[in-house]
Amino acid sequence: MTLFRAVVVAALVCPGLAWGQASTIPFDYRERVTTELAPGLYTYGNFGRRSIFVVTSEGVIATDPVDPKFAADYRAAIRKVTDQPVKYLVYSHQHWDHARGGKIFKDEGATVISHENCLVHFANTPHPDIVRPDRTIRANEDLKLGGNTFKLMYFGRNHGDCMLVMQLEGADVLYVNDLVTPYSIGLGFMPDYDPKEWARTLREFEARPDWQRVVGGHGIPFGGRDAVTQRRKFLEQLMAYVEPLYAQGKTVDEMIAAADFPEFRDVRGYKEQVGRAIERIYHYYEMGW
Amino acid sequence: MKSLVLAAAMLAAGPVVAADAPSRAEMLKPAPNPAWSAFSVKGHQTEKIAEDFYAFRYTGTRTFFLVTTEGVIVADPIGPTAAKVLRDEIRKVTNLPVKYVVYSLEHWDHVPGAKIFKDEGAQVVAHENCAKHFKDLPHPDIVMPGITFPGSYELRLGNHKIDLLYFGPNHGDCMVAMRPDVEGGKYRFIVDLMTPGGAPMAYMPDYSPHHWVRSLKEIEALNVEAIVNGHGITLSHPSSISERRRYVEALMVAVKKAIDDGMPPNDIPEKVRLPEFAYMRGYEQYIRDNVRRIQTCYGIGW
Hints:
The complex is a heterodimer of chains A (289) and B (302).
Chain A: H1 2-13, E1 33-38, E2 41-45, E3 50-56, E4 59-62, H2 68-81, E5 86-90, H3 96-99, H4 103-107, E6 111-115, H5 118-124, E7 135-137, E8 141-145, E9 148-154, E10 164-168, E11 173-175, H6 195-206, E12 213-215, E13 223-224, H7 225-247, H8 252-258, H9 270-287
Parallel strand pairs in A: 4-5, 5-6, 6-7, 11-12
Antiparallel strand pairs in A: 1-2, 2-3, 3-4, 8-9, 9-10, 12-13
Helix pairs in contact in A: 6-7, 7-9, 8-9
Chain B: H1 2-13, H2 24-27, E1 44-50, E2 53-58, E3 61-68, E4 71-74, H3 80-93, E5 98-102, H4 115-118, E6 123-127, H5 128-136, E7 147-149, E8 153-157, E9 160-166, E10 176-180, E11 187-190, H6 209-220, E12 226-229, E13 235-236, H7 239-260, H8 268-271, H9 283-300
Parallel strand pairs in B: 4-5, 5-6, 6-7, 11-12
Antiparallel strand pairs in B: 1-2, 2-3, 3-4, 8-9, 9-10, 12-13
C-alpha cells in the first residue's frame, strides 16, 4: 500500500508528465479516509469508491451510499466530524456500485433524492439494497440546509440519463461521479456512456469558471481542471481517430493496431484500455449507440 | 461497404463465414446445427420464404418485404444503397408501391435509407422509443417514423397483416419482433437478439442482459415455427432462440458464482468458461469480453 501510494504520488507530481500536477496530496489505495476539501465539505472513500458530504448547522447532506457496508462506515465517518443527523441523501445516478445501501440514512430520517430518470432504472433493474428516492428532481435544483446551498445540477444524458453533478456553493469543488476519474483513462468499454454526450458534458464543466477541483466517484480524492480536460480530450481524439477509419471500412483490429495517442501514453490504464475504447467508439459509428 | 459487412456479421454472429446456402430442411434442424455457419455476407440475395413473403439480404444484414393486394410492407431499409437494391428486387415481384417501412430497432446498421420509399409515399412505422433515440443521436439517412406506438402494434394492409411484437428493453428499448400472417403466422423476423450458432459479440453492445433473457423467454413461449434472421443464416429452428437464451443465462450464472465465490475481478474473464457452448462461432474470440459485460451487469446494474 505504501509503495502504491509513493508511486502514484510520484507520478502525479512528476514534472515530466503533461497531466496531473494539480493533485499531489497523498492518498490511500484501500483504506477509506475522510478528507476535508473546503469548510464543511468532505470526501469519504478510497481508490475504489468515493462520496462527499456537507456538514451544516442543521444537519448533513450525504451523497452516494455505495453499498450497505460502505454506508455503515461512511455514516460512522460522518459521526466523527459532526453529531448532526443526515437530513438528505442524494444519489449521483442509478448504478449499483454507487446507489446501494441507503437504508441506514433513510432509517435516521434522511430524505432520499435522485433525478427522476433514475426511477425507471430502479424499476427495470431492481436491487434489494437500493432505497427508492423520496423526492426526484427534473432540472437543476438548490438544496438548502443550515444556510448552505448545495447545488444539484443535471447536464442531460452522458453516463446513463439521470446523472446529478453536485457543488457546495462557495466551494471550488465539483462532485462528478464516473464522468471523471482524475488522471486515468477509465474503463475502455465505457459502460453506459454515450461518448458524444459525455464529451459535451465535460465541455460544459470546463466552461464553468466556478470550480478548480473535481471529485470523482472512483480514484484519488480530487483532480484539477486538467483532469476534466484530459478525459474530454481523450474522448475527442478517440472519436476523431475512429470516425474517418470507420468510413473507410477499416476493422476494429486494424484501428487498434495502428492507434497511438501520444498525449495519453503515460496516463493510468492507457495500455489496458485503449483497444476497448476504440472498439466502443467503433460501435458508436456502426450502430448509433 | 466493407465496414458494414464486417460490422454486421461481427455484431451478432462472430466471424464471417461464406459457403453455399444449405437447404431449408437443413437450416430448420434444431440447435446445435452446423448448417447455421454456412451463411454468406457477400452481395445481396432475395429469397421467397412463403407466398407474398420475401427475405432480402444486403451483405451481412437481412430484412424482408411482404406483398399485399394494396401495396408492399418493407421491414428495415438497412441503408441508402441497400434500400435502392431492395426497391429493384421488390419491382421484380410487384409493381405495387411500398406503403409502409417498419423499423426493427433504432440502430444505424438496420434503419437508415427509408427515404427512397418515403419519396414514393410510404409511411415509416416504429416503436415510439426509437423516435427518442433518433432525436438524441440524429443520422442524416434516417427517416423519422410518422407512425409510432407504445407497445405492440398490428399493421394491416390489403390482404395481410404484420404483428409488431414489443418485449420491452432488451437490445436498446424499441426493438420489435415481426410476425407476418403468412402460413398461419409461423415465422418471426428477429434482429440481433440472437444469431443462430453464434456467440454474442464482444461486450454485447446495447444489450441489457436480464431483459435480453426475459425477452428471449417470452419469444420462446410464442409457439414459433421458424425464425427469419437479421444476421446469419436465413431461416432457423426456434431452438436458435433457446440456444442464445441458454448461453446468456449460463454466462450470468457462471459470472455471478465467480463473484459470489470471491474470485478476484481481473481473474474472472480469464477463468470463467462455458465449455458446453464452445462449439459456437466466435466463442473463443468473445468469451472474455462476454464475461466482462456480465461482470459490469452485476457491478453497476446495467
